[in-house]
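Narrative summary of target 7.
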Amino acid sequence: MWRIRLLDHLVQAATWMAGGLLILTIVAVFYYLLAESRYAFTRKFPYGFRIALQSPDSEYRDEVSMDPTASLLATHREGTDELDDAEDATRLPPHEELASMQSLVTATAQTSDPAQLRADELFRDCMRAPKTAEQGERFLLLAFAMPSYTGKTMELAWEPDVAFEPEFAPYEFRLRLLRAPKGISIEPIEINLNQQPRGRITLPVWKAHSQQEWLNGYLFELEARPTTTTTVATLQQFFKPDWAPTILYARFGMLPLLLSTLLITLLAITFATPLGLAAAVYLSEQASPRIREWFKPILEILAAIPTVVLGYFGVVLVAPALQKLFGEALQLTSGRGLLATALMMTVFILPTVISLSEDALRAVPNSLREGAEALGLTLAECVRLILLPAAKSGLIAAVLLAIARVMGETMIVWILSGGTPVMPDFSSPSAALATLVKPTRAIPDTIAIEMGNVEFESPHYGHLFLLGLTLFVLTLFINLLGFAYRKRAQLQF
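Modeled conformation, tokenized:
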């Protein structure tokens, strides 16, 4: 007798230990993701503008970034607060040499104090190290004409540097005229570059006849004024529609990744639910015991197929078929995309939907079936009016657990999605079709692709863990909701 009691106690202890380990694992994973996500909030925010002094008929009026005489005022990873080789190479040459090269000049300095400007310490560009959102920055810009310039007016033109958009920086950018040359009468100039990121203004011509006179030209200031904190700015940008963490002006907007994940999930569930429910109804209500005995192992084999095999199956068969079907009309270079991923995800979750749905239907008491038969209902009417409503909680649980599996799957998405993070576009039927078949990228494959090459404890590293935390919370919530519905279905009978 004591042996039985001892065994019962051991089983009970093992059960509690397993439950405790499960809860501890979930808490540990959540804490680890949260802890590593902190590096996302150490990021600094780069920005850059190109400013050029041009003639009214300049060929670079519409593309300041292409103007070889334009000055770059920027903060990014290649910048520094001290002189380096790159900045030294852009030092302005002596006056005579500069006059032979160009007739309109912009020049910058390392200092932000106008009193410290020196004619022999002027540069074409000024690139500084990026700073946190709480720290502002000021750049000085001199603009003047050389004696060889024959125009009656000159124009100061500006635009964001290539790949930079002011909305992705937590600053208010102001371009203002600090000082006009002596003898020049001009209205005060102050331009909000957030509202007018591209533009040009006309200035009266002023010529510098010597190198020392450079300092007497138009003196402008580009100011980046903080508007928020680093934490708030990081969270705001995390919900922007652009993920480009490796470009010079890095962007960490996870919205296209999240929407792609949800679209893949929605399509897969849309395809799998009717197929899975139909198969579950057949196995539960129509199939003979022999067929059910054969079908169950097939489901288990399908569920045991490695997802990498399903991914390669999609690459070999599904993607070429979609390429053949839509390639010419939509100019696709590959059939890999959202639809191909969703189709293989359907195959991936069908065993889950069928198995759990059949369990929910078989849990419905036979008395309900007998009552339906006594009322003269057909099988279709019995399923629609009696069985499906009675098994609703279990069926919802099956769908929710399948959703959680799709959202967390990595290999199929990695192989079939195409690896291009773009915002879905449903503005028109043709745009919606293109969105479905063109390459995309979701949260799981983004983490898998980029984690191997990311710098340890960098902001990019932290944002990948922030993506993982987002995915973990979503899938955990859906799993808990699914188990709650499943428990509810068990209690009903």
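The chain has two domains: 47-230, 254-492.
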